[in-house]
Amino acid sequence: MSEEFMLDTDDLERRMGGAIASLRTEFASLRTGRASASMLEPVMVDAYGQKTPINQVGTVNVPEPRMVTINVWDKGLVGKVEKAIRESGLGINPQLNGTIIMLPIPELNEERRTQLTKVAGQYAEHARVSIRNIRRDGMDQIKKAKNDGQMSEDDQKIWEGEVQDITNRFIAQIDETLETKQGEIMHV
Questions:
Q1: DSSP three-state, residue 97
Q2: Which helix (H) or strand (E) segment is 179 a member of?
Q3: Would you tell me which CATH number, out of the four given (3.40.50.1440, 2.60.120.10, 3.30.457.10, 3.30.1360.40), belongs to the domain 34-104?
């Protein structure tokens, strides 16, 4: 490989790793029939004049496999937290017990499981697009270096192969993560 041009493959891998981390966060918010505190992460409460994450207005616990509880710190916010959960689209019916909001997680029916696997597939496709965009950035850097005379055609092929190998590795990770999540969703 040429001495003049060095592609920052660590940067490409870091950015692609970020796309995978983002995908895992999105997958964590998908309800699989098991209680998880992370399923409440996207829910924002209108508290103190601004949108606030639930974990900043109360303590989120998972006391049993099919129950999430939120111990709201400010009694005046209980109604707002309950409203935010009802309007979140999670399909959970909150039950009040003083300042504690209980969220029983119902069993998923077959239709809902199928919908969730499709949503998981969409999340994975967004991650694949992100990976491909990062790949394109790397390929553009290589082409620019070749056009500027910083590398030979042979070096260009070597670098392009390197970027493609990195891309293939991360796309395979996405596919593996998706397959695991879809299996988890469909498991009864």
A1: strand
A2: helix 153-186
A3: 3.30.1360.40
The closest alpha carbon to 85, from 39, 24, 49, belongs to 39
Q: In what order do the strands lie in the sheet with 58-64?
A: 58-64, 67-72, 100-104, 95-97
pLDDT digits (tens, 9 = 90+) for 60-76: 999 988 889 999 999 99
Predicted confidence at residue 15, as pLDDT, reads: 95
pTM: 0.68
Q: Given this chain, do its domains 9-27+109-186 and 34-104 carry the same CATH topology?
A: no
Contacts of 137 (CB under 8 A, 6+ apart): 12
Site of tokens 């109360």: 58
CA 67 to CA 65: how far, in whole Å? 6
Q: What letter represents residue 34's amino acid?
A: R
CATH dotted code for 9-27+109-186: 1.10.132.20
Domain spans, the chain: 9-27+109-186, 34-104
Q: What does the alpha-carbon distance between residue 147 and residue 139 come to, in Å, rounded to a whole number? A: 12
Nearest to residue 130, comparing CAs of 10, 4, 12? 12
> Tens digit of pLDDT for each residue in 31-58?
666 777 877 887 889 988 899 998 899 9
